[in-house]
Design a protein that fits this description.
The complex is a heterodimer of chains A (about 325) and B (about 290). Chain A is mainly α. Helix content of chain A is about 75%, strand content about 0%. Chain A folds into two domains: about 60 residues, no CATH class; about 260 residues, MetI-like (MetI-like fold, Orthogonal Bundle), CATH 1.10.3720.10. A two-stranded antiparallel sheet of chain A has the order 1-2. In chain A, a hairpin with a 4-residue loop joins strand 1 and strand 2. Chain A starts with a helix and ends in a 5-residue tail after the last helix. With about 290 residues, chain B is mainly alpha-helical. Chain B has two domains: about 45 residues; about 230 residues, MetI-like (MetI-like fold), CATH 1.10.3720. Chain B is built from twelve helices and no strands. The radius of gyration of chain B is 24 Å and the shape is globular. The chains are: A mainly alpha (about 325), B mainly alpha (about 290). At the A-B interface, helix 1, helix 2, helix 4, helix 5 and helix 6 of A face helix 1, helix 3, helix 4, helix 5 and helix 6 of B.
C-alpha cells in the first residue's frame, strides 16, 4: 500500500496546482479498497454464518456420527448425512464419467485438428450451453432423459443384463443417478471443454512441431508430447468441473428421485445435498434442530466445494499463467 | 515398417471419428434441448400466459398467466445486476489500475474465484439466514440482494478479463503523460472496456434471471404482480419448477410454456450481448 501512494504524494509536493488531482486519486484509491473488501468479507461472512447456524447440531451430536450416519429422521432426532453425501458423490461421479471423455476429445479436436471456422463456432455454442438455466436442463431431463431410461433402458437391463452390481436396481422409475448424471454432464461440459481447450492451446507450438517433424502422427503427438506435459492442468480442469457439478441444485433435484437412501447402483434414486436443502427449507422451522441440520448440510457442501475449487483454481492459475481461472 | 504405419493411421482415423462424434454430441445436445423446449412449449404458449396473472384455480388448470413471474424475474435480475455493477465495476477498475501485481489484488481475485464456485443454493441458504438475522422476510429486496451476490463474481471476472486484453501501452502512455491512476481508470480503461462491460452486465443478468435455487428461499413466490420491494415476488424459474411438479397435465403444459419464455429471454440476452459488444467495439483502440 505504501509504494502506491508515492506517486500522488510527489505530484502534490512539486505541483500544487495538481493537488486536487492527487488527492482525488488517493481518495478514490481508498474508496476502491473498501469495495475490494466486499468479496473477501462475503466469503468469510458466508462461512461464519453457516457455522453459527450449524452449531446447535454440531454441539449436541458427534461430527463423525453425523457424517457417517445412515438414518435421516429429523422428527426423531436422527441426522445422518451419509446418504446425502454419498448421493452427491454418485451423481457427480456419474456426470464426470459421462462428461470427461467427450470433453477431452472435443478439446483435443479443437486445438489440434479443426480449422478456424469450427473453432470460432465453438465459442458461441459453449456460451449458449452455459447460458441455459439449470431449471431448463431439469425440464429437458424430465421430458427427454427420464422416459428413455424408464421405458427403454431399465426393461432392457432387466431382461438381458441381469444382476450386475452398479447397474441393477429395484428402482423402476427413470428418476435416478443416471438421469441426474446425464443432465449434469451436459451442463458441465461447456466449462470442462473451455478449460481443457485453453490448456491444450497453451502448449508451445515448437513442442508439437518437433514431434510432428520426426514423423509422429498428430494423435501420437497428442498422446506422447502434449498430454504428459499438460496432465496436471487436465486433472485440475476436471476437478474444476467436479466442483461445478457438486453444487448444482435444480436440474439434479428434478430428475434424481430424491430418496434418502445410500445408493448402490447407477439406476438407484439418490438425494444429493443441494436437493436436500432446496426441498426442505419450508418445514425446517417446525422441527427442533432441523434448520440447524439443513445449514450443516449447506456447510458440508460448501467445504467440499471450497476444497475442490481452491485446489483446482491454484493449479489452473499456475498452468495457464494468469490471474483468473 | 509399412504395417506399423498403416496401423497408426488407422488409429488416427478411428480417433478422428471419435472426436468428431464428441463434437457432434456437444452441438447436438444443445440442439436437442432447444428442440425439446420449443416443441413442448410453443403449443402451450398463449397471449394470456404473457399478459395475465394466475386466477383462482390456476394451478388446477383454470385461466390466467405468469405475468407475475415474468415481471418478478425481470425486476429481480435487473435490480441484482445493477447492485452487482455498482460493486463490481470499482473492484474491476481497482484490480487493474491500482492493484497491478499486488498481493491484495491476488487475494481479491482468489476470493472472487471462490465466490464464483459457491453454488447458488448456498447463496440462497446464506441469504435466508442473513435475512432472518436482521429480521427481514422473504421479499423482492431479499431476492435482489441474493442475486447481486450471485452475479458479482461473474460480472467482475468478465470485466477484469476484458480489461486484461487492453494493450498495456495505452495505460502506460496515459500514466507517462502525467495522468493519475484514477484518471486512467475513468477515462482510458472505462472507455476501452465498454463493449466488454456490456457483455459482462448481460452475462450476469442472464445468469441471474435463470437462477432458481437462490431466490427460492429469499424471494418466495406469489401470484400477485410485484409491486413492493418488501413483498415476496414470483420468478420464472420457480414458475417452471412449481408448475411442473403439479399433477395436472394442463398445468404441466404451462410449465413448458414458462420454460420456453425463460429460454427465449436467456438466449436473447446471450445473443444480444454479442451483437451490442460487436457494435461498440469501434470505440476501442486495438
Amino acid at each position: 500500500m505504501e509504494t502506491e501512494s508515492n506517486l500522488s504524494v510527489d505530484t502534490n509536493k512539486k505541483r500544487p496546482a495538481l493537488t486536487w488531482r492527487g488527492r482525488s486519486d488517493r481518495l478514490a484509491g481508498r474508496l476502491f479498497f473498501i469495495f475490494s473488501v466486499i468479496p473477501v468479507g462475503l466469503v468469510l461472512l458466508i462461512v461464519v454464518m453457516l457455522v453459527i447456524k450449524s452449531w446447535p447440531l454440531l454441539k449436541t451430536h458427534s461430527l463423525w456420527l453425523l457424517l457417517s450416519g445412515q438414518t435421516w429422521k429429523p422428527e426423531e432426532g436422527f441426522f445422518g448425512f451419509w446418504p446425502f453425501i454419498a448421493g452427491t458423490f454418485w451423481v457427480t461421479a456419474a456426470a464426470l464419467g459421462l462428461a470427461v471423455p467427450p470433453s477431452l476429445l472435443t478439446a483435443i479436436y479443437l486445438s489440434e485438428y479443426s480449422g478456424r471456422t469450427l473453432r470460432a463456432l465453438m465459442k458461441p455454442l459453449l456460451d449458449l450451453l452455459a447460458a441455459i438455466p439449470s431449471v431448463i436442463y431439469g425440464v429437458w431431463g424430465t421430458l427427454a432423459i427420464v422416459p428413455i431410461i424408464q421405458n427403454n433402458l431399465i426393461p432392457f437391463i432387466r431382461q438381458y443384463v441381469g444382476n450386475i452390481p452398479l447397474i441393477s436396481s429395484q428402482n423402476s422409475t427413470g428418476f435416478g443417478i443416471l438421469a441426474g448424471g446425464i443432465v449434469l454432464a451436459i451442463m458441465i461440459m461447456p466449462f470442462i471443454i473451455a478449460v481443457l481447450y485453453e490448456i491444450l492451446d497453451n502448449v508451445p507450438r515448437g513442442l508439437k512441431e518437433a514431434s510432428l517433424g520426426v514423423g509422429a502422427t498428430r494423435l501420437q503427438t497428442v498422446r506422447w508430447a502434449v498430454l504428459p506435459k499438460v496432465l496436471p492442468g487436465l486433472v485440475a480442469g476436471i476437478v474444476f468441473g467436479a466442483s461445478r457439478a457438486l453444487g448444482e441444485t435444480m436440474a439434479v433435484l428434478m430428475v434424481v428421485g430424491n430418496v434418502a437412501q445410500t445408493p448402490h447402483s447407477l439406476l438407484d434414486a439418490a438425494y444429493p445435498l443441494p436437493a436436500l436443502i432446496a426441498n426442505n427449507y419450508g418445514e425446517m422451522m417446525s422441527i427442533p434442530l432441523y434448520d440447524s441440520a439443513l445449514m450443516t448440510s449447506a456447510l458440508i457442501l460448501l467445504i467440499l466445494i471450497l476444497i475442490f475449487n481452491i485446489t483446482s483454481a491454484l493449479i489452473l492459475r499456475r498452468v495457464l499463467g494468469r490471474k483468473w481461472v | 515398417m509399412k504395417h506399423r504405419r498403416t496401423r497408426s493411421q488407422l488409429v488416427e482415423a478411428v480417433f478422428k471419428v471419435l472426436m468428431l462424434a464428441s463434437f457432434a454430441f456437444v452441438a447436438g445436445s444443445l440442439a436437442l434441448i432447444l428442440w425439446t423446449i420449443i416443441s413442448k412449449g410453443l403449443p402451450a404458449l398463449s397471449w394470456a400466459m404473457l399478459t395475465q396473472v394466475p386466477e383462482g384455480g390456476y394451478y388446477l388448470g383454470k385461466g390466467g398467466g405468469i405475468l407475475n413471474a415474468i415481471l418478478g424475474s425481470l425486476y429481480m435480475a435487473g435490480g441484482g445486476t445493477i447492485l452487482a455493477l455498482i460493486v463490481g465495476l470499482p473492484i474491476a477498475l481497482y484490480l487493474e489500475t491500482y492493484l497491478e501485481r499486488s498481493a491484495w489484488g491476488a487475494y481479491v481475485r482468489l476470493t472472487l474465484d471462490v465466490l464464483w464456485g459457491i453454488p447458488s443454493i448456498v447463496y440462497g441458504a446464506f441469504g435466508f439466514i442473513f435475512m432472518l438475522a436482521i429480521g427481514m422476510r422473504a421479499s423482492m429486496l431479499g431476492g435482489i440482494i441474493t442475486l447481486a451476490l450471485l452475479e458479482l463474481p461473474i460480472m467482475t471476472r468478465a470485466m477484469d478479463e476484458v480489461i486484461r486484453l487492453m494493450p498495456e501501452e495505452l495505460e502506460q502512455a496515459a500514466l507517462a503523460l502525467g495522468s493519475t491512476r484514477l484518471e486512467v481508470a475513468m477515462r482510458v480503461v472505462t472507455r476501452q472496456m465498454l463493449p466488454g462491460l456490456v457483455t459482462a452486465v448481460l452475462l450476469a443478468f442472464g445468469r441471474g434471471i435463470g437462477d432458481a435455487a437462490s431466490v427460492l428461499f429469499t424471494a418466495g413466490y406469489t401470484d400477485r404482480l410485484p409491486t413492493s420491494l418488501l413483498r415476496p415476488a414470483a420468478s420464472l424459474p420457480l414458475a417452471v419448477y412449481f408448475q411442473l411438479s403439479m399433477p395436472y397435465p394442463e398445468v404441466q403444459k404451462r410449465a413448458y410454456a414458462a420454460a420456453l419464455i425463460l429460454t427465449l429471454i436467456v438466449l436473447a440476452v446471450s445473443l444480444g450481448s454479442r451483437w451490442v459488444s460487436a457494435k461498440l467495439r469501434k470505440n476501442v483502440v486495438k
